[in-house]
Design brief:
Blueprint (H helix, E strand, L loop, with lengths): L3 E3 L11 H11 L4 E5 L4 E4 H17 L7 E5 L4 H13 L2 E4 L6 H11 L3 E4 L2 E2 L2 E2 H8 L8 E4 L9 H8 L5 H7 L7 E6 L9 E5 H15 L6 E3 L7 H14 L2 E3 L7 H10 L4 E4 L1 H8 L16 E2 L6 H9 L7 E5 L6 E4 L6 H6 L3 E2 L3 E6 L13 E7 L5 E2 L3 H7 L6 E9 L5 E6 L4 E3 L2 E3 L1 H8 L5 E11 L3 E10 L8 H8 L11 E4 L13 H11 L12
Parallel strand pairs: 2-13, 4-5, 4-6, 5-10, 6-9, 12-13, 12-14, 14-15, 15-16, 27-28
Antiparallel strand pairs: 1-19, 2-3, 7-8, 10-11, 11-21, 16-17, 17-18, 19-20, 20-22, 22-23, 24-25, 26-27
Helix pairs in contact: 1-3, 1-9, 2-3, 2-6, 4-5, 8-9, 10-11
């Protein structure tokens, strides 16, 4: 048998727009709590939430925004972000998610490439001065007509005026606009990290992300009784789809602990709001489990949750089930271009599959494992590229037919670039990225295998395995570790002793670095490319970086 699978289809796809689905939820649960944001003193029912969304939608209509226009959203996890998300969905205006960590050149590229007509923005965030950066790039963005700064205490912006302008637009105008929209219309552009070139704007439709959110919740057994904590950033699919949209398709409550991830405030929100679910990336869970308040925080209300964004160490998953009191925690796997979830574990899966795989194929989705060079479908257990197709595959990269064609095959298969295996029960195990795979003297080494092994070391809190250049073998293995609090730094000799007779000799790290933290993206992904460059320089290996592999 070959490594391919098709998801369940007994529950039909939603053939709605996001606005229609949201208003249906409002009609069902008008007085149920919809949105709780302690850092902004927000506590709204679904009726109140919808009223605020419509005020923003009417404001945007008054400013001349129409179906197909693009508007950027540049802010951390604040209430204005959520309001713009649902208001644009009701109007058919395409929201362009802008990474809060972007600098001026990245901002200019996203605004220019997407042709944004406007931007809703914070004035500042952490060390970033958004006002200054937007001023610097205005001349590079010919389509940009206005910037709408949100209001903050002591820093008046343009938000109040936007809402005031909307008073001139009849309430029924939003409903009229919604009737002109279709599920397959583009509604969102999300830029990829651009680690191998300029960022690509994954263009997603109502149908893409609404259904993905719906089936994510279905797999988790989410209902209107759940209260779901969303500390992951809204600008990424994790926040806006697997968090916000997943909740509103079910009538559940969205709980947002802070403007950006803070382990202490997230733990506090879980306890205070009696959260039943939680969505995080692995590094966020690790940070919370390492926090001094973790043991004393009341986590008894938790039932479920999702973990995704990057591979989760098996030892971390085991602790989530026990120490975090999340017996039904599930792993989700996918990418922005697939809306994002393609596979998911389930609460009834055997424990070894729940902690040691990324689950099975999502409803209404097809998956397969393909030889990267041969293009042939792999056998069970054989390593190949994970590919997927179905409703969840993006419409394409915005105004970029060339790279869209490179990513999606003529038959509609999305090439993920991830290396994976499938077992006979259909469970997927991600073994690494094609570009992260280490080739040492002709041997293929998958970093995650070594990382999983080193997580069993009693003194190691976190570990990343990267390949560095080597004249003899082409590449060698480097282990970058973070020690647990109070533990002495690991030595290379001690590491090799720990690995002896437990890892094949060619997988044993030749190099070791002990660090306090890793370079991270805003979504909690480790920047391995940056780590590789830094480590190669520290070891004096830049000169052999371009050597052909042995």
């Amino acid at each position: 048998m070959s490594a391919q699978a098709i998801g369940r289809t007994d529950v039909p796809l939603l053939e709605q727009t996001i606005g229609d689905n949201f208003e249906a939820t409002v009609a069902r649960f008008p007085d149920r709590e919809a949105l709780v944001m302690p850092h902004q003193n927000i506590r709204w029912t679904y009726r109140q939430f919808n009223e605020e969304v419509d005020r923003v939608a009417r404001g945007l209509m008054a400013r001349g925004y129409r179906k197909g226009d693009r508007i950027g959203m540049w802010a951390p996890n604040v209430v204005e972000w959520v309001l713009v998300q649902y208001a644009t969905a009701k109007l058919g205006v395409i929201q362009v998610n802008i990474n809060p960590a972007y600098r001026a050149n990245e901002l200019a590229y996203a605004l220019r490439q997407s042709g944004c007509k406007g931007v809703v923005s914070e004035r500042e965030f952490k060390t970033s001065n958004y006002v200054s950066m937007l001023s610097d790039v205005r001349g590079e963005c010919p389509d940009l007509k206005e910037v709408i700064f949100v209001d903050r205490p002591g820093q008046p912006g343009d938000w109040a005026q936007l809402l005031a302008d909307g008073e001139s637009v009849p309430a029924e105008a939003v409903a009229e606009c919604m009737r002109t929209l279709a599920p397959n219309d583009p509604i969102n552009i999300q830029y990829t990290s651009g680690t191998t070139g300029s960022p690509k704007g994954a263009t997603l439709s109502h149908r893409n992300i609404l259904n993905n959110a719906y089936f994510d919740g279905l797999c988790m057994r989410m209902s209107e009784s759940d209260r779901f904590c969303v500390p992951v950033p809204f600008y990424h699919c994790a926040g806006m789809v697997c968090g916000n949209l997943m909740c509103t398709t079910r009538g559940a409550t969205i709980v947002v602990p802070a403007a950006s991830f803070d382990p202490e405030r997230t733990l506090k929100a879980i306890a205070a709001e009696r959260c039943t679910g939680l969505m995080c990336v692995p590094t966020m869970f690790i940070a919370m489990m390492s926090h001094p308040d973790f043991e004393t925080t009341d986590k008894s209300s938790l039932r479920t949750g999702t973990i995704g964004g990057s591979p989760c160490p098996i030892e971390v998953m085991k602790r989530l089930v026990t120490d975090f009191h999340m017996p039904e925690v599930e792993i989700i796997y996918g990418m922005t271009e697939t809306s994002p979830v393609a596979t998911q574990t389930g609460p009834d899966d055997p424990l070894d599959k729940r902690v040691g795989s990324v689950g099975r194929v999502h409803p209404h989705v097809e998956i397969r494992i393909v030889g990267p060079e041969s293009g042939e479908i792999c056998a069970y257990g054989e390593v190949g590229e994970f590919q997927t197709r179905g409703y969840s595959v993006m419409l394409g990269y915005w105004n970029d037919e060339k790279r869209t064609g490179e990513a999606i095959t003529p038959e509609g298969w999305m090439r993920t670039g991830d290396l994976a295996t499938m077992d006979e029960q259909g469970y997927i195990n991600i073994v690494g990225r094609i570009k992260d795979m280490i080739i040492r003297g002709g041997e293929n080494i998958y970093p995650r295998e070594i990382e999983e092994f080193l997580y069993t070391h009693p003194d190691i809190q976190d570990v990343q395995i990267i390949g560095v250049p080597d004249e003899k073998y082409g590449e060698e293995v480097l282990a970058s570790v973070i020690m647990k609090d109070g533990r002495p730094p690991l030595t290379l000799e001690a590491l090799k002793t720990f690995c002896k007779d437990r890892l094949a000799h060619y997988k044993v790290p030749r190099y070791l670095e002990v660090v306090a933290e890793y370079p991270m993206t805003v979504t909690g992904k480790v920047r391995k490319i940056e780590m590789r460059a830094r480590a190669s320089k520290a070891l004096g290996l830049e000169k052999v970086a371009d050597m052909p592999t042995a």
